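Design job #97: recover the sequence.
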């Protein structure tokens, strides 16, 4: 039955024009699950053997979440009509966007539960916005999600369960390395110019911020990061 379900689901996705890409959510249990107060656990990785699981990109999310109690939830198709972000003004171009500081915005759609608002956590009391957190070894060796999303029909979805042992994490290959600003897997002189560009232009993606914003991180790449960045290169 499971094999038939996966095959049928793959056909549906292909017909719908959804991009097929390997999920970059970590496969370690419980690092691929989020908790909904009224829907239970959701699996962010394993849709169609991880080929249609969630992909966390530099500016948007794409792929599908599976909820045993609620079915499929899509976070976007990975192809915004006007890149780099989904417009989220109607159902023709929707999905979860990621801003340069790692905060999540926009909407996911559940076939049985309707819209899920990823800006919802920022409106909670106290605010607990949904976002991507940079890795902070050794305690947090991988980038991960945290905060809350809100579904009008299902309530809060917690991206990092309160015990801090259940959360949605990115895999090692997709976790930005501190000081590796050009994201080639190495920390060396080739990272200097990309760091300077980010320092001067103040742009870039959340992964650029994770690589360039040196501890103690303050969500901006500025002059305070220059000394620690140089020390990081020399070490």
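Job complete. Output follows.
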């Amino acid at each position: 039955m499971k094999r038939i379900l996966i095959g049928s689901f793959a056909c549906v996705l292909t017909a719908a024009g959804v991009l097929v890409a390997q999920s970059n959510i970590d496969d370690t249990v419980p690092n691929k699950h989020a908790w909904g107060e009224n829907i239970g656990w959701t699996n962010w990785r394993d849709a169609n053997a991880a080929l249609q699981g969630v992909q966390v990109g530099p500016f948007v999310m794409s792929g599908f979440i599976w909820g045993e109690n609620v079915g499929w939830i899509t976070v976007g198709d990975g192809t915004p009509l006007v890149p780099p972000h989904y417009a989220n003004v109607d159902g023709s171009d929707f999905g979860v966007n990621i801003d340069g500081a790692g905060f999540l915005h926009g909407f996911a759609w559940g076939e049985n539960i309707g819209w899920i608002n990823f800006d919802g956590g920022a409106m909670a009391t106290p605010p607990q916005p949904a976002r991507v957190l940079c890795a902070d070894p050794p305690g947090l060796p991988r980038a991960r999600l945290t905060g809350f999303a809100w579904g009008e029909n299902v309530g809060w979805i917690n991206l990092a369960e309160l015990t801090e042992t259940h959360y949605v994490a990115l895999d090692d290959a997709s976790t930005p390395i501190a000081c590796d600003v050009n994201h080639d897997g190495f920390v060396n002189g080739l990272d200097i110019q990309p760091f300077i560009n980010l320092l001067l232009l103040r742009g870039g993606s959340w992964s650029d911020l994770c690589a360039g914003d040196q501890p103690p991180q303050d969500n901006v790449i500025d002059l305070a990061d220059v000394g620690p960045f140089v020390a990081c290169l020399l070490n």
